[in-house]
Amino acid sequence: MSTVATLMDTAVADVELLRSLDANGDDFSIPRDVEFLMPGPSAEKASIVAGFINDYQYGLATADQLGEIHRVLVVVHMPIQQHNISCVSGFMACVSLLYGLEYDGWDALLRSASDANLGWITLEVALRCAPTTTRQAKIQG
């Protein structure tokens, strides 16, 4: 898949997730930890990508393994206004492409002015650049 197609698919998925969060009362301007997930084919690739992200301080990256899947989890403390999250999400998608990983999108805690921690909410998002992986939807009451 081309870089442009990946960025377009990522932008669509990001907007869908933002709409879901907005419908649940999220205040996008409140900073929170945002998790970006990049599954990969090997521990070596995951380690290289985590090292790259940590070396340049793009976020706090850890390489780990879940079953047979190697992955990189990147945490960035930031607001999720569309211009912010679109830039960082697009960057993570490009890093994934450059290093041969998949990009599985992002998760964030729902934040509002009245209750800073309402629970996890994510969309079930299947990006074309990562068709075998999806984000799980869970709202804690």
From TrEMBL:
Which Pfam families does this UniProt record tie to the protein?
A: RraB (PF06877)
- What InterPro entries does its record include? RraB-like_sf, RraB_dom
What Gene3D superfamilies does this protein map onto?
RraB-like
Q: Where is the Regulator of ribonuclease activity B domain?
A: 15-107
- Specify the domain of life of the species encoding this protein: Bacteria
Question: Know the name of this protein?
Answer: Ribonuclease E inhibitor RraB
Organism ancestry? Bacteria, Pseudomonadati, Pseudomonadota, Betaproteobacteria, Burkholderiales
